[in-house]
Amino acid sequence: MDRFPNAANVDFHSPLDLSKAAVAVLDAEGRISGWGSSAQHLLGHSPEDVLGQSAARLLAAAPGQRLSALCKAHKPRNTVLDLCCRDGRTLRAAVTFSPLAHRGVAATVVVAADLEALRGWEAQLAMLQGLATESPVGLTIFDTDMRVVWGNISTDLELAGIAQYIGRPAADLFPEGEFISRHHPPDEDQIMEHVMTTGEPIMGMHYRGRAPADPVREHVWSCSYHRLVDARGEPLGLFEESLDITDRYRAQERLSLLVRAGKRIGASLDVRRTAAELADVAVPQLADEVLVDLPPAVIEGRQPPTGSAPGHSLLRMHGRTPEEFRTSPVSYPPSSLQALSLATSRPVVEDSPPEAAAEPGPAASHSCLFVPLLTRDAVLGLATFRRSSNPDPFGPEEQTLAVELAERAAVGIDNARRYTSQHAAALVLQRSLLPQHLPEQSAVDVAYRYLPADSRVGVGGDWFDLIPLSGARVGLTVGDVVGHGVHAAATMGRLRATVRTLALLDLDPAELLTRLDGLVAQDSEPHADDGLSDEALGVTCLYAIYDPVSGRCVWASAGHPPPIVADASGSVALSALAPGPPLGLGGLPYENVELNLSNGSVVALFTDGVVEDRRTDIDSGIDRLAHVLTWQRCPLEELCDRALSALPPGPQADDATLLLVRTRRLGTDRVADLELPPDPAMVAHARTVTERQLETWGLSELSFTAALVVSELVTNGIRYATGPVMLRLIKDRCLLCEVSDNAHTAPHLRRARRDDEGGRGLFLVAQVSQRWGTRYTSSGKTIWAELAVP
């Protein structure tokens, strides 16, 4: 069996070895008296051709005197000769002449070999000698019991003398070392046993430990193990080759650490989490502990202090989870190295730092590295890298790595600070655009929920509102702007304000949406430069008006899901009318839908985020919400919670807004109607009826003021109308006085001159009432005024 099947041409015997070299014997006259088979193999001459012949015949040149001198020498001589081969070639050979004297017969033994083969063998020998005496690769031989037999110069230097370990087991060389490669057993005895048993080499294992010659610094070696066998193939032991790759390994570790830092640091957009991410990445590979100190302004999302480095009034970050997050104050004296690092914006190393009173925590550190957190030429704070178990000081490469990590952390902290600031501004914007609380109304009870899809920003494009209208009526609206974030919220705020303004004009829902559609279309024109053209596309809106006197509810939709109504018995009804086009598209008219609602009905107005998601269609969502409304006798707040808890788990695809309304009806005892013919004499009658009704309601204190308002409004109605005039009094949170006629002319408030006989009626009404106005109906108009109840 071949001992070296993968290295068949490797032979470490010398070409001049008698087992391989060409051998001949010369007598005293230089004649060939002996010719071995190896000589015939080297030169091709048979013994019959050369025996008894002069050896000079085999020389390419004929230096007879030199050959004679070599044969007569009294000690071995080496030389290089050109020999003639039988085939005519000239072979340059290394030749050794050794004198031989036996019983007085003079003879010389000649040993020859190819000079080129000899030079190759000498090179191999020099290589082996170099491995033993000069190579940086450590070579160690172990016997079959895994005990040290021999080590080269590199092993001798690492062990501070190999002699003291001869005969000792391998485990004694590096007692605290460990394999850090995970693709083989981590125990060295198991690895060596595997190689001895199977003969399979194990190569490229990474081993970490401290060499006896350098017990302070931790090293990493790349180790390989090979079995040694004798000529019969029997195991002799094994040898280990090891190469110190500490610098390369640490460079690779630094690179991998930077890769991890790029993936992890700054991904959370949270100042405290970013500080924790820096510590998680750097520990334990670079340091045993990382401390991050920041000014309170940075943590709160404000601008960092300017003018000087923030050496005072810093807060140290603690904790890895939101539940653990806390801060503790820390301050650095002006003479401290921390203050120096902050003032110079450069890293500072402190070896074996003394205990600092200003710094909380243990002071048993071997080395500290202070690195300022810099971004955009501003100092955000300080990162402290500490080593306690690792005695190595921070070297130049590690300082560069720490600065790189600090820069990444500074960018992440600054981004988190800016995000915190923008998030706070966005929340302020959202709160200012959406109603902080819906006003209490006699007509309805309300409850609402708003869940933005962008949970990071916390704002979106949905809106809702409840608008008090004349005659104890209320306007209800829900809308949705395509998109999320601040831009959608800004567009939403403008549209909500527009809807409120148009609603106060007492427009019916279809007319209001028509006017709103025109405004959105103008904003969406290509040349619009108000910043709303992109976000205004795809706006939907629903607007409804509920009258508690009649129980009549009128609504219209611009691409928005229609409301769901549950009456007092729990029966749920869905509208069959398809909504009109979204705002800004134009082309099709909007239609009003009328409903008569019983007292205690629940109306759900919502955006599509409540009923639609990526996993279910909108019909399933509407059915789910309708099922929740069958519990309409529950409090509205509980119904809101039930509706949102029924949403599928996971992140929302769209903003979700829900407005629940429970209707009330005003009883007949709180409403008084009086029809008056168009006769000026009826004004006095109207005053009398008003005074009697107020006395019945216990509002006699308002009799004079109410009579004055009714007198002026009825007078105007009779003067300009061509038919009967209707007077309505409503006792609500205030006293409502309404006069309706069939005229479409609008009254105007003006300041009468001294010599004018009229024109002061509406001026008086405006002065004594808290609100007044006009709304138009299909049959005419209604002038109304609200009087505060004392």
Protein model, in words:
By secondary structure, the chain is of the alpha+beta class. The strands form six sheets. It has a six-stranded antiparallel beta sheet with strand order 7-6-11-10-9-8, with helices on both faces. A six-stranded antiparallel beta sheet has the order 14-13-12-17-16-15, with helices on both faces. The model is unreliable at 1-5, 354-363 and 527-536 (pLDDT under 50).
Radius of gyration: 51 Å
Query: Would you count the extended β strands for me?
Result: 32
How large is the count of helical segments? 19
Taking all residues together, what is the mean pLDDT? Answer: 83
Separation of the first and last Cα atoms: 119 Å
Structural class: alpha+beta
Strand order of the largest sheet: 7-6-11-10-9-8
**Shape, per Cα inertia axes:** rod-shaped
Largest sheet: 6 strands, antiparallel
The amount of helix comes to 25-40%
Poorly predicted runs are 1-5, 354-363, 527-536
Q: Please report which band the strand proportion falls in: under 5%, 5-15%, 15-25%, 25-35%, 35-45% or over 45%.
A: 25-35%
